[in-house]
């Protein structure tokens, strides 16, 4: 397939977008330099709607931006059940999880694990998050770069450097406040770009929206009765819905990049509003991104055909560079960059929070001024590691190696969510039981992954095996049970007295 020239007008639009993101980081540099509270939590001064937009932009990567339309193009809207679960679990988050993170005034999610189980669980949880997200940064840079360069003449090194390098700089400068406000801008751009693509696609089809609907009905491109059958050719919505609940519970309760946002608003009420904002945006995403795939299905059946042997992972970039006017194409490629950078900047700031708070401050003491610089250099190092891995993948095309790394660290992802649930919903879970349960769950998840079960079924097994193994094994180590007052749902309204790590004194939380 012949690659398409990107064009001067598109480059101008793209460069202007990248410079605007850099300007956001520069603008918030002074505020973020005050202390680590400002650098990691924006001093709790973020409006609820902006925090919600940031959560949304963080969880929607460029991979999602391209793979969701591809799924709708090839199959149907069944995976939209995953978006519905985000909205469905918000009451659970608000009632059971957020109060504990806010009560502890936790910068990282894993501070709760220390209070509930001990420092060893905090260390393991934070380390696994850090390793996984360095790998995630690499994949989030690599896959969109690969897709865009499949269909255009843009040098992949330039894409990776522009997306990753500038993202490192504005995260380094602006801290969490810069990350959140850039997320807001990026969220608006990525949604606006997607809507524009859908509108332009419909307008290019003879018969417009009516033709799209007719094609969708004739080819079962939305939802059909087959989607509710188990073991059929179509994806089963009940399995997708159930598995997505536990995938999202992991992201919203045990993953630092999202949990960190819970502390960026002034009150718990504002945090709850931010979650509802994110939930509404997750619902809005369904018709936009799945609709994009359905529109492209009609477009390539009526207007023109895809090249023979075309790789559909590049479906969206191909439509952008081959069918849209100059300038508009640059804007929508910028939307893909925005989806990519919002995920990367959140990962980098969250990795920095884990390394600074869970490792440096926890074991070597706190010095706010010096720790801000420590945090900034951690952003640089994590970003460079992620970029180097991405460039290695680009030069060697050995994505399977990196996917293996992500799979190994990811085996502990959903099980860690099970550990948080154990801490909050039970009184008898203890450190030895949780550790043994975590490893038994990871082993179970590994073997389940080797079966023909869908990833959503694997997520369900991972969560429940972690919870059940952790609880049952804890019953064998009752002498390790701790005082859980204020740390479980049974005493959720009680005051919690936190033991300082570096003294023998206590303080009320």
Automatic annotation (TrEMBL):
Full protein name: Sodium:solute symporter
PANTHER family: LD47995P-RELATED, SODIUM-COUPLED MONOCARBOXYLATE TRANSPORTER
Primary location: membrane
Keywords: Cell membrane, Ion transport, Membrane, Sodium, Sodium transport, Transmembrane, Transmembrane helix, Transport
UniProt-listed Gene3D superfamilies: Sodium/glucose cotransporter (1.20.1730.10)
Family annotation (CDD domains): SLC5sbd_NIS-like_u3
TM region positions: 6-28, 48-67, 79-98, 119-142, 154-173, 185-205, 230-249, 279-300, 315-340, 374-395, 401-425, 432-448, 454-477
Protein family (similarity comment): Belongs to the sodium:solute symporter (SSF) (TC 2.A.21) family.
The organism of origin for this protein: Neobacillus kokaensis
Topology relative to the membrane: Multi-pass membrane protein
Cellular location(s): Cell membrane
């Amino acid at each position: 397939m012949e690659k398409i020239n990107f064009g001067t007008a598109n480059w101008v639009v793209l460069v202007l977008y990248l410079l605007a993101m850099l300007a956001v980081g520069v603008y918030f540099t002074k505020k973020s330099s005050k202390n680590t509270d400002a650098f990691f939590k924006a001093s709790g001064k973020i409006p609820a709607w902006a925090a919600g937009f940031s959560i949304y932009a963080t969880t929607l990567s460029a991979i999602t931006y391209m793979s969701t339309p591809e799924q709708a193009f090839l199959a149907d809207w069944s995976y939209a059940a995953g978006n519905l679960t985000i909205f469905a679990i918000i009451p659970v988050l608000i009632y059971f999880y957020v109060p504990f993170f806010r009560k502890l005034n936790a910068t990282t999610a894993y501070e709760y694990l220390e209070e509930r189980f001990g420092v060893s669980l905090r260390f393991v949880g934070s380390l696994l998050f850090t390793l996984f997200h360095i790998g995630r940064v690499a994949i989030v840079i690599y896959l969109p770069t690969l897709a865009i360069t499949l269909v255009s003449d843009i040098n992949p090194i330039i894409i990776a450097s522009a997306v990753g390098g500038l993202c490192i700089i504005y995260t380094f400068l602006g801290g969490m406040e810069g990350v959140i406000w850039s997320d807001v801008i990026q969220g608006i751009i990525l949604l606006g770009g997607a809507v524009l693509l859908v509108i332009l696609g419909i307008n290019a089809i003879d018969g417009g929206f009516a033709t799209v609907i007719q094609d969708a009905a004739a080819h079962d491109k939305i939802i059909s009765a087959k989607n509710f059958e188990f073991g059929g050719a179509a994806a089963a919505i009940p399995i997708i819905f159930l598995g997505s609940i536990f995938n999202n519970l992991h992201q919203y309760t045990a993953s630092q990049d999202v949990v960190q946002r819970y502390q960026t608003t002034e009150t718990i009420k504002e945090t709850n509003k931010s979650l509802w904002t994110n939930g509404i945006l997750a619902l809005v995403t369904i018709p936009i991104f799945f609709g994009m795939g359905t529109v492209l299905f009609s477009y390539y059946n009526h207007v023109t055909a895809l090249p023979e042997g075309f790789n559909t992972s590049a479906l969206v970039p191909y439509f952008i560079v081959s069918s849209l006017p100059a300038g508009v194409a640059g804007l929508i490629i910028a939307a893909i960059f925005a989806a990519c950078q919002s995920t990367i900047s959140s990962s980098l700031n969250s990795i920095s929070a884990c390394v600074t708070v869970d490792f440096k401050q926890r074991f070597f003491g706190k010095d706010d001024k010096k720790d801000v610089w420590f945090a900034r250099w951690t952003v640089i190092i994590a970003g460079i590691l992620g970029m180097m891995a991405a460039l290695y993948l680009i030069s060697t095309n050995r994505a399977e190696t990196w996917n293996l790394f992500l799979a190994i660290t990811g085996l502990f992802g959903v099980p860690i969510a099970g550990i948080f649930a154990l801490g909050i919903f039970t009184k008898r879970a203890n450190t030895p039981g949780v550790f043994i349960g975590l490893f038994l769950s990871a082993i179970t998840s590994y073997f389940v992954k080797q079966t023909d079960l869908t990833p959503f079924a694997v997520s369900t097994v991972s969560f429940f095996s972690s919870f059940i193994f952790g609880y049952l094994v804890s019953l064998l180590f009752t002498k390790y049970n701790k005082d859980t007052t204020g740390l479980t749902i049974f005493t959720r309204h009680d005051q919690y007295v936190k033991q300082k790590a570096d003294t023998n004194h206590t303080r009320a939380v």
